[in-house]
Amino acid sequence: MVIKVFKAKPFVIDGDTLVSWENEQPIYYRIRWIDTPETKRADDFVKTPYDESQWKWGELAKSYLIDYVKNSNCVIYVEKGLDIYGRTLIDLYRDRKAIVTNYQRLISAAGLSAAYLPFPQNINLSPRDEITIYCHIIRNQYTARIRKEGIWRDPNFIMPWEWRRLKR
């Protein structure tokens, strides 16, 4: 495991995606194991109440990540491979690598993301950090759902992956 620090604060694309530049080339980072609502694009228009709900929560999730990055002295990440789109999968931390500063844990507790977890048999959960993050996401999402926080209080909200599927 290699712990890295962004040289400059990364640019926030949405609630689970960042971009930074190295040698004038963009490098896209996808925060793993969470899926935040989508943000509205210039060519999007409202067709259903689900669209408005998705975009409203998408903007709140994006703002959450912007504040997380802005309010940090340094942004730390651990690379975990590549996704199917070539983005670098990461675990994200603020100021120090500790579970209390882990972004996935915090945004799931705020009710602004849905767990997007692989089946446990498909990943190596033996490193303590892996199982700790995995369990915190599950527990925090469950608590947010019970308390009806964030996306979990909106009757028009559908999971981001379902919304994307319906848009195809």
TrEMBL record:
Pfam family membership, one: SNase
InterPro entries registered for this protein in UniProt: SNase_OB-fold_sf, Staphylococal_nuclease_OB-fold
Domain TNase-like residues, every copy: 12-154
SMART domains to which the protein is assigned, alphabetical: SNc (SM00318)
Name used for this protein in its record: Thermonuclease family protein
